[in-house]
Design goal:
By secondary structure, the chain is of the alpha/beta class. 27% of the residues lie in helices and 25% in strands. The mean pLDDT is 81.
């Protein structure tokens, strides 16, 4: 996979902009297990991948009696 095909947005707004621009041509990767296997097997040729690792979606927050779970 070439670096120009991998997006690592730093905000949810940036992630939504990438997804809006590339649509279904952009595979969204959470943990990466399935996507990286497909890339290693040549199954992602011509596709773009967006990693969500830096969006801060991996936490658990409690606020006023409600819980928010990240991705």
């Amino acid at each position: 996979m070439s670096p120009s095909m991998l997006f690592i947005p730093k905000s949810i707004e940036e992630a939504l902009a990438v997804r809006s621009e590339y649509g279904r041509d952009c595979i969204v990767m959470g943990g990466g297990t399935l996507v990286m296997q497909a890339a290693a097997e040549g199954g992602l040729i011509g596709k773009r991948v967006m990693s969500l690792q830096r969006l801060g979606l991996d936490g658990i927050e409690m606020n006023n009696g409600s819980m928010r779970l990240g991705a």
